[in-house]
Structure formats: C-alpha cells, structure tokens
Amino acid sequence: MFDVEISAFILALCLVWTNGSILPEGNNPNHNTNTRIIGGQVVENRTHFAFQVSLRLDGHPSCGASILDTRNLLTAAHCVTNTRGNVLRASRLRAFIGDLNIDRLSAATITRWIRHIFVHENYNIDTLQSDIAVLRVDPMTLGRNINYIPLAVNVPPPNAICTVSGWGLMGYGGIPSNALRFVNVPIISHAQCVSTYGNTLLTGMICAGYYGRDACMGDSGGPLICSGSQVGVVSWGVGCGLENFPGVYASVPHYKSWILEQQARAIASSIRDHSYLYLIVLFVYIKALTYKH
Ligand SMILES: *[C@@H]1O[C@H](CO)[C@@H](O)[C@H](O)[C@H]1NC(C)=O
C-alpha cells in the first residue's frame, strides 16, 4: 500500500488498528491509520510497561495510549477523531489497563470509560499536524503494574535507542498480536527523516525506527519511551518497518506544555465536579428542612 501514496501530498500511515468492517471513522484514506509492532518481542513483565493502555473503540481494540496521571491518558488525535477530523463521542471509547494480553483479561485489568477527549486545537486530519490528544478518565489507583510515565523534556540525539510498544500488527498486512509487544528503535535525525518524507514532516514530528523494526497498524497512540520517559506518541509512517521509512511520532517535548495544560484542566474540572456535588447536597438538605414543616 505504501507505494500508492508516495507521490501524493501525504505519506502517512496512521496507526489505528481497524477491525475488519469498522474502518473507522478516524481515518483519512490517504493515511494508513494502522500500526503494530514489527520485529519486536513479547513483554514478559507488566511492571516494565505499567504505563501501557489499550483503547477500544466500540468494543474493538483500536489504539494504544499511556498513563499521564491518575485521571489522564495520552494518545494520538487520529485515534479519537473521525474521517472528517471531528472528535468522537467519548462514550464510544474505553481504556483497558493492567494486562499484557488483550484477549485474556485477568482480575488485574481495570477498565475506564473515556469521560472527556481533549484533541490538540491544531490537529489536522490531512497533514497529521499535532496528532496528540489527552483523555480524561475516572481516577485510577496507581501501583506497580498500572503507573504513569514521566514526560521527556528533550528529544534524545540521533541513534539513541528507544522503545515502542503495542498490540499492533506484527507485519505490514500481517496479523495483530494479543500479547503486548515492544521493539527497540533508534531516533532518526530530523535531516535524515526530511530526506525521506520531505515537507510532510512537520514541526512537532520526530522519527524513529529502521529496517525491520517499527510500529505498525494498531500501535497508534502508544508511547515511544527513551530512558524511562515518554518522547513520542505513535502517529504515522509509510508501510511498517520498511527500509528508509521510519515511524513518525508526535513529539512529547514539543507538546509538553499543551499536555500539562490538559492535565490541569482535568484537575480544575474535578474541583468543579465536587462543588456541583456540594450544591446538590445543600439543595437536598434545604429541601429536607423545608419538608419538616
Ligand atoms: C517484574 O519486574 C519487577 C521490576 O523489575 C520485579 O520486581 C518483579 O520481580 C518482576 N516480576 C516477575 C514475575 O519477574
């Protein structure tokens, strides 16, 4: 499929896994919004990937995400928008967190409906500019196997080895994985990545991966981790693991202040939610007093 679009204005391969008929909503036909781990291996110990989240759209595994804090997840905007770039109804999305296998859920798994979706205001479905979103959920208890990942301050230098993980395809046109997989990928310099993708590589995008090692369909929205902090969000590519076509990620350092703002909004709204509750209690109390007479 990658050859079809190479000369087109977009070379994108977004990384949403689409389950057969449910070709989402979510995906410009010019962007292949599917991505799964290529050339990687199965994660044996959940503690090492405690931040990994599986998103389900209408009940089907669709994307990855990562944990920012007890109430917020980070994912790609194209995971939570339709073909016109409009934000999906939050109630169609649910997060599964805590297990390594998405087909065999144990008591360790917690699920959270998505309560609110914050898509970056500069997100563009055609160019995949600012392909980043924060999802608010009801509070989670963090611990060894369900934990947040710190946000990176800088993008590491070229050739630094990072890790991308997900339940995506194990080969382009291959099958998805029920087990969480990861692969180590080098950061590719901006200059080298521009030489591949030209002006489709925009500010706020970073590249990682090499021949035979990449994210692929279904890994979208998942984290790129370097030295224990998140540097990227799986966004797009051309094919998966192709020589000279590295994976493209939304840069976490570039969007860090935006991400922090969304987290702060969640905290503010939680305070608002509670004041609303106090008002109800007060109202009921006043009613009770009134009815005494
Ligand atoms: C998983 O990794 C953690 C942290 O490295 C370690 O403490 C724990 O023993 C490991 N669990 C298993 C089952 O190997």
UniProtKB/TrEMBL annotation:
Record CDD domains: Tryp_SPc
Ranges for domain Peptidase S1: 37-264
Record PROSITE patterns: TRYPSIN_DOM, TRYPSIN_HIS, TRYPSIN_SER
Domain of life assignment: Eukaryota
GO process terms (BP): proteolysis
Protein name, per record: Trypsin
Keywords: Disulfide bond, Hydrolase, Protease, Serine protease, Signal
Pfam families: Trypsin (PF00089)
Organism of origin: Popillia japonica
Signal peptide: 1-20
SUPFAM superfamilies in alphabetical order: Trypsin-like serine proteases
GO molecular function: serine-type endopeptidase activity
Native organism taxonomy: Eukaryota, Metazoa, Ecdysozoa, Arthropoda, Hexapoda
